[in-house]
Write a structure and sequence with these properties.
- The complex is a heterodimer of chains A (684) and B (121).
- Chain A is of the alpha+beta class.
- A six-stranded mixed sheet of chain A has the order 14-18-19-17-16-15. In chain A, strands 6-8-9-11-10 form a five-stranded mixed sheet.
- In chain A, helix 1 runs antiparallel to helix 2, helix 1 packs antiparallel against helix 4 and helix 3 packs antiparallel against helix 4.
- Chain A starts with 11 loop residues before the first helix and ends with a helix.
- By secondary structure, chain B is an alpha/beta fold.
- Chain B has a single domain, classed as Rossmann fold (3-Layer(aba) Sandwich).
- Helix content of chain B is 43%, strand content 21%.
- Chain B has five helices and five strands, in the order βαβαβαβαβα.
- Chain B has a five-stranded parallel sheet, with helices on both faces.
- The termini of chain B are close together.
- In chain B, 60% of the residues are buried.
- The chains are: A alpha+beta (684), B alpha/beta (121).
- At the A-B interface, helix 1, helix 2 and helix 7 of A face helix 1, helix 3, strand 4, helix 4 and strand 5 of B.
């Protein structure tokens, strides 16, 4: 909508913002549907949905004067239109062309959004290919007209005679003769003659039928076209004869009847859930407020417990009801922010396509679980690590086609991208069927760089983990593609900042699989409140398998690895929390305290030795990074009902810290790594 | 009496612009994002005009028009379709289904109001 600047109060900027937000969604949908098409789903619904995305992008582009975008999307749309009308077959070449066009469209949209100038002839080859395809199919291609020049040339006064006989059809379409007459009158001096001769008697009158016809005489300075325009909407539903009285008038030009084109029946089967668009800031504010509410509610609950229940039964009932509602409220609010990972996944096929072309590799990407939902804040941070992992798999994992063929693999490599929810976390996996990690090479490089002591004996997993070390950039590992100055260590750091973990499994010659495990939300945790000495900790409930107090006979020492607990034929390492955090007044004996069995991704099941269980509670996570500094073994802090700060344990790290502590020095000695944690506790 | 208009478009941008312009011009505007939603809104009140896009998921504009004309309480209400310049065939389809008139995208606020006044008694 080329909006004139006089319309000051017309919030163009705001509409523009909405438009580009919408474009992002439309491009995502376009991409997904094109993927479906590529994978052989060629039904009408898919074709219609693809068309609609481009159509909507074009519609808005005109409104904001994005000419490049209008031109390109118009060509694109024409091709899609021909495709959905089955005038062009969805051949492999056409599908490839559509994917290319979709990529180019995304770039053009982006340039328009940022108001960047595109290089001249941007995507000209793609446009040309689309036009060729259209012409090849004998499709006429209309260039979109600019804003139609309005005839403003003023003429000397002329007289028209207009005979107008509406059909019943015209009235059925809610065209009102009176409105037409009013419009005619605006053009000049109008005299009207009505012929009511065909009007039946009242009893026979059909109130929805047309019986009248008119003859107008119009003295006006406007050209004939303007007079005809008054009847623009009704010309097919009436008899109309416009005659220039003063000049010998020819017959009225026949109205251009345009009956070509099938009736659009674009009723897509894809049902779209009703939604409203809300500013993320508003949701975040809501989340924070609910967090505060939950803390206040926890405090109230705690106070309520100390009251005699028989004296204040209603107050206590009220507090319980409040706790229930607060919890439900919190869950609902968190659900608002949850989004399917699809939005991130949808960007990956393009990256694969482009990079595969650059590297001369044949790669397909298969995605699954894209409807898995995760907190929006997590999703936003997911793009970069995921992109890097995909690039990494393509660059280092997948071999060139010839090499694959020689190894007896299909020429085309496969990257599998999947998401799934597992025990309160989301697990995203990027796996490829490429060459896998060359451990000898990695180890040799690491030794050469002094990252691994010469005599050290590393397990396969430990070797694989070397790729996450900072500064592990060797010419063989980092190329200009996945390198770009960012190593896997940065990916790991980014993921850890999200409360996530990354791990790799690899089989030489058969492929690698990177696994990202992320919390569903960063804002709330269901926790078990435990005490160790005078300190209180929270253990995330999702990690807890069971709690028990073992017999002395079930605890066995293991050289260099502390103690293990024999549990139903299994041996689980024990982690002494008082030792990890150097707490002096703890019980420290699992047979007098409690062992909490937790499941962690990297260390399997581990028993955490604490003094006492204090109860179960939902806690609002406050970041330690934001309020203090990161502490190993601690994933965050929270405020308990009594107003005290409690630290939330990062169970996956505890075992490692404990091993390092016991392997390197005596249990009694202070572990400098845990100093900050200790300070923090006392500061709280 | 304030005239009530229902704006139907799957594009939030278009709905926003149409709605803003018309509200500023003193109309009362309701919105729906596809034909189905529009039919729902229509059952809940009386409208003086419907402005609808044609390409929409769930139920497109043509089906919406046919539905409204097929005997609802709004069968005599004017319906404007939003169409693009290259869509000559679409205009004809819209008219055949019972549309009162059309508005060619992109349009400016003045054109929108002029067209609305042209069909809305």
């Amino acid at each position: 909508m080329p909006v004139s600047s006089e319309q000051e109060s017309y919030p163009v900027a705001q509409f523009r913002k909405t438009y580009f937000e919408e474009c992002a969604e439309l491009l995502d949908a376009l991409q997904s549907n094109l993927e479906l098409l590529s994978s052989g789903q060629e039904d009408d619904e898919t074709l219609h949905a693809i068309f609609r995305s481009v159509h909507s992008i074009k519609g808005g582009a005109g409104a904001f004067g994005c000419t490049d975008l209008v031109a390109f999307s118009h060509t694109f749309e024409s091709l899609l239109d021909a495709l959905r009308d089955h005038k062009i077959a969805a051949s492999q070449e056409i599908k490839q062309l559509l994917l290319r066009a979709s990529d180019a469209l995304a770039d053009i949209v982006n340039a328009a959004r940022l108001e960047h100038q595109l290089p001249p002839n941007f995507a000209a080859d793609t446009s040309a290919a689309m036009l060729d395809a259209l012409q090849g199919a004998g499709q006429a291609f209309e260039v979109p007209a600019g804003s139609a020049a309005v005839e403003t040339k003023s003429l000397s006064e002329q007289r028209y005679r207009i005979r107008f006989r509406p059909h019943t059809e015209m009235l059925k379409k809610a065209n009102e003769p009176l409105l037409l007459i009013r419009q005619l009158r605006k053009l000049g001096v109008l005299s009207t003659e009505v012929d009511s001769s065909s009007l039946p008697a009242l009893a026979a009158l059909d109130p929805e039928a047309a019986y009248l016809n008119w003859t107008f005489t119009l003295d006006t300075a406007v050209p004939r076209g303007a007079v005809q325009d008054v009847f623009e909407f009704v010309e097919d539903d009436c008899d109309l004869d416009i005659e220039l009285v003063e000049v010998a008038a020819g017959p009225v030009e026949a109205a251009p009847s345009d009956a070509g084109g099938a009736v659009a029946t674009a009723v897509a089967a894809v049902s779209v859930a009703q939604s409203i668009r809300v500013d993320v800031d508003k949701v975040d504010r809501l989340v924070n407020l609910v967090g505060e509410l939950v803390i206040s509610q926890a405090m109230l609950t705690e106070q309520g417990l100390s009251l005699p229940a028989d004296k204040y039964p209603q107050l206590i009932q009220g507090i319980e009801a409040l706790a229930q509602s607060a919890r439900e409220l919190q869950e609902s609010v968190m659900a608002i922010r949850a989004q399917p990972v699809k939005s991130v996944f949808a960007r990956m096929p393009r990256i694969v396509r482009e990079l595969a072309a650059t590297l001369g590799k044949e790669v397909r990407i298969v995605t699954s679980g894209e409807m898995t939902e995760i907190d929006k804040t997590v999703i936003e941070q997911l793009n970069d690590p995921l992109t890097h992992m995909i690039r990494n798999a393509l660059d280092h994992g997948i071999e060139p086609p010839a090499e694959r063929a020689a190894a007896g693999k299909p020429r085309q490599g496969t990257i599998h991208l999947s998401a799934a929810q597992r025990s309160g976390r989301i697990v995203i996996e990027v796996s490829d069927d490429g060459r896998g990690i060359n451990r000898e090479k990695i180890l040799a490089k690491a030794r050469a760089r002094g990252l691994v002591p010469a005599g050290a004996n590393l397990s396969d997993d430990e070797v694989d983990d070397l790729i996450f070390l900072p500064a592990f950039s060797t010419a063989d590992v980092i190329s200009n593609i996945s390198g770009r100055g960012v190593g896997m260590d940065v990916v790991k750091r980014n993921v850890q900042a999200l409360g996530g973990r990354i791990s790799v499994r690899s089989r030489f010659g058969q492929g690698s699989s990177f696994s990202l495990s992320l919390p569903l939300t960063l804002a709330v945790v269901d926790g078990m409140v435990v005490s160790v000495g005078g300190e209180t900790f929270i253990i995330p409930l999702v990690a807890i398998v069971e709690n028990l107090r073992p017999q002395v006979s079930e605890i066995h020492p293991v050289v260099g690895r502390g103690h293990v607990l024999a549990l139903r034929g299994e041996y689980l390492p024990l982690v002494y929390l008082h030792r990890v955090f150097s707490i002096s007044d703890a019980i420290g004996d699992p047979c007098r305290g409690i062992v909490i069995i937790v499941q962690s991704e990297n260390a399997g099941r581990v028993g955490i030795v604490v003094d006492e269980l204090l109860g179960q509670q939902q806690v609002v996570v406050k970041s330690l990074e934001a309020n203090y500094e990161p502490v190993d073994g601690i994933s965050g802090a929270t405020i308990l009902g009594n107003g005290r700060v409690a630290l939330i344990l990062d169970v996956a790290r505890l075992h490692e810290i404990d091993i390092r502590g016991t392997a390197g020095r005596l249990p009694a000695s202070e572990d400098s790594r845990t100093e900050p944690a200790k300070d923090m506790i006392h500061a709280a | 009496m304030t005239k009530r208009i229902l704006a139907v478009d799957d594009s939030k941008t278009m709905r926003d612009m149409v709605s803003f312009t018309l509200k500023k011009a003193g109309f009362d505007v309701a919105e729906a994002e596809d034909g189905k939603a529009a039919l729902n809104v229509l059952t809940g009140g009386k409208f003086d005009l419907i402005i609808t896009d044609l390409n929409m998921p769930n139920m497109d504009g043509i089906s919406l028009i046919k539905n409204v004309r097929a005997g609802s309480q709004h069968r005599a209400v004017p319906i404007l379709i939003l169409t693009t310049e290259s869509d000559g065939a679409k205009k004809a389809d819209g008219k055949a289904a019972g549309a009162t008139g059309w508005l060619v995208k992109p349009f400016n606020p003045e054109q929108l109001i002029a067209t609305v006044n042209r069909v809305c008694p």
